[in-house]
Amino acid sequence: MYTPKNFRNENPEELARFIQENGFGILMSQVNGKPWATHLPMILSEDGVKLTGHMARGNSQWKNFNTGTDVLAVFSGPHAYISSSWYNHENVPTWNYIAVHVSGKIKLIEGDELLESLKSLTNKYEKASVCPVSVEGMSPEFLKVEIRGIVGFEIAIEKMEASYKLSQNRDEENYRRVVDELEKRNEDGSSKIAEAMKKLRPQG
Q1: 167 backbone φψ class: left, alpha, beta (φ>0; ψ -120 to 50)
Q2: Beta strands 34-41; 24-31: pairing state
Q3: In terms of CATH, what superfamily is 5-170?
Q4: Mean pLDDT, the chain, as a whole number?
Q5: How confident is the model over 109-166, as pLDDT tens digits?
Q6: d(CA 193, CA 11)
């Protein structure tokens, strides 16, 4: 991951929180020597040392997962276009964004390990539902049939890299100009980037 020093984030607590809040990622590996990517939710363990998830059994990607296969999981956060017209000097447009890359070795999981992963995933995303469902509440017969259609995996995390590109290379005046213009847009990505920028450099 290309991450200039100004934009690098090496705070493990912040990165863990980011993955917990943006858990729908992209799992990348090779299938028959060619790049392959699958969009799916993943769960970070409480100790931050592994990611778990599952994919459809019909997805060819898992068939190339031998124990120790290197994979990359990409988690994306808010992003926003930055117009160079906002600066008090001539410059080029750019894009601000937050993203975390996790690399490690993958292995397949089944049985109780897969079941626990499904419980964690379901409980996380169902907690805000009016009538939340749970794996425990599903009938054994139904669950048995559904599990046949998926393949579980676990990634032992070896490295986390993060780019928090939030105009850190701008002076105070231009930094505030970017924040102000982002807030004027009144759209989700721009608002979230503006909030992240204000958190990074609180105004005194």
Answers
A1: left
A2: antiparallel
A3: Electron Transport, Fmn-binding Protein; Chain A (2.30.110.10)
A4: 95
A5: 999 999 999 999 999 999 999 999 999 999 999 999 999 999 999 999 999 999 999 9
A6: 18
Whose tokens are 């982002």? That residue is 182
Tracing tokens 């599903």 back to the chain, one arrives at 138
For residues 61 and 66, what is the distance between their CA atoms, to the nearest angstrom?
Answer: 11
Token readout for 106 is 């993958």
Long-range CB contacts for residues 7-10, cutoff 8 Å, separation at least 24? 7/163, 7/164, 7/165, 7/166, 7/168, 8/161, 8/162, 8/163, 8/164, 9/162, 9/163, 9/164, 10/162
Residue 45: how many other CB atoms lie within 10 Å: 14
CA Rg value for the chain:
20
Where would I find the H helices in 55-158?
111-126, 140-147
In DSSP terms, 173 is beta-bridged to none
Q: Give yes or no for residue 67 having a pLDDT over 90.
A: no
The residues spanned by each domain of the chain are: 5-170
pTM, full prediction = 0.93
pLDDT at 72: 98
